[in-house]
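Section handout 9: paired folding examples.
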Amino acid sequence: MKRLETVRAADLAETQTGEAAWLIEGLWSAQAVGIIGGQPKCGKSFLALDLAVSVASGKPCLRRFPAQQCGAVLLYAAEDAAHIVRQRLEGIAHAASVDFDTLDVHVITAPTLRLDQTEHQQALRATVASLQPKLVVLDPFVRLHAIDENVAGEVAPILAYLRSLQRCHQAAVALVHHARKGGAHERDGQTLRGSSELHAWGDSNLYLRRNGQSLFLNIEHRAAPSTDRLQLALKANPPALALEVVEQAPAAAPHQPSAQQRITQILAEAKSPITQRQLRDAARMRASHVAEILAQMIGRGHVSRSNEGYQLKS
């Protein structure tokens, strides 16, 4: 029987000098396959189109994440009419200060694309080979097949086909997919509809969640740190309608009581006079510092001293 080919680890191909590790820094790894997931009406399509505009133009995605590689984008939007797709792309391009007429996004206009059919797989592969896109966006997964999404044996061949597109043509693949209801207390990947193969497949996954009126983005990578609860908002500034990061005000530093305030509080809570040693231990301060503060407070008439110890004057 013919043996499998092997190669020593040291002989594996190295990353080319200067090759970016990111397609979009912090958001999508270079040549990554992955999921853009979330429940309906969470802005998954807007996020997918923002990725497309960023890669096609070189402008930051969501006006925050720098595009590290720039090139053509191939898009299939199965649920939206052509004029809606154009309107959304124009709005995002305007928000990103991009000339829409020069945007290198190619929209598949075929009425159906079925990734569980060999003929359609071959047609998509030929299109990718011709355009050589940096990014392929397929939105949404449920409209791209007639399989049972809960059966791993039916899902896996489609994901393997998309992985082969990525490897053969060095194209990132973003697959928009719905989350099921009732997953509020589960990890994002566990809320995706269907087989766990989908979550495991992704190199970079983006998950959108609503919490009341607020929208949050969780970013997950196979080989880079993740980011949780980045707040987004869909902002309208006609003709722009696009997701943007909500800038959070820095949290105020917690108020730290002064040394005298700490001594005063300890004395106030004491039910009887308290010794200097007890004050030092309770306040976790040096004895010399406690003695200095007590002397000042006695001088101001705030504290009295007896044989039993110190106490606040009423």
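Moving on to protein 2 of 2.
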Amino acid sequence: MERTTYSVGIDLAAATFVATVLESPETVKLAHKDFDNTAAGMAEMVTWLEAGGVGKDNTKICMEATGVYGEALAYFLAAAGWWVAVHAPLDVKRAFYPTGHKNDPVDSRQIAEYVLRFEDRLRRFEPKKPVLEQVQALLATREQFVRQKTANLNAIKALKRKVIRTPMAEDLFQKNVQQLSAQITQLEQEIERLFRQDPDLHQSLLLLLTVPGVGLLLASHCLITFEKLDQPYNPKVWAAYLGIAPLQKRSGTSVFKPDSSRHFGPSTMRKLLHLGARSVRTHKPVFRHYFERKVAEGKPKKLVLNNIANDLVRIICAVLRSQTPYIPNYRSVHPAVSVSS
């Protein structure tokens, strides 16, 4: 693989960002410089890079994933043809010992050094389709509204248990619940409308909805996740990303624990996938029989549900890869690939 000549590390804040250019981990090409986190500041940085002999063909730019602080800059650089990566802050932090000063110039240099040392780990940033960006925002909004609705329902229950009732407070909470329910319905309708605007995404959505346990919300999250992964058709990559892959924890002769998942990942999608696994366990005979058989063998219920969730991920990947609907009575020629066989 051809090595990068220059690496640019960018440390972001709300109002400004700092950029440092390295030629090697020990050699600074362009010392750190501050820019406004605005369109003018972004254009100024590009001019600064080109004036210093740093061009698009021999440079990789990396910034930490800081949400909306860096989104505009990532889109700007990608649209201008620069190679840019958006990486998890924890990965950069773990790559360096916590010694010396901690400030924006130091952080930007460490990010640039991370590019040179771990170039093979970087993935080029590619903007999502506008439809998926909007769907992702609507899904996040819906999740917030669901939490608010749950909080209001819990408040109503608490008020109704009091000896001295307060009808006005109960009524106001009830109105909030009704309003939030209506808004959640509107959000779901808008998500469906957005998908219908893109024929390819809409076709994939309809295919995913044929999978047992997969509804609009889980299917939407699946299509967003598909765009994030380097190997989007590999169910093992999905399982690792979601935090449902069974991982070993063994060392020497003293540490020997059962395989378990890492217990963290995209929380909303993990929740939806767990609900999907519970649904098929209840309503689909093949999954129900598998669940009952494994529990009778002494397997923990959570473990068996996690296995079913992994099975659903394999079906989702197969449907997306083949672009064909789920076949309920399909049996693989290699039965071992499916936990429900």
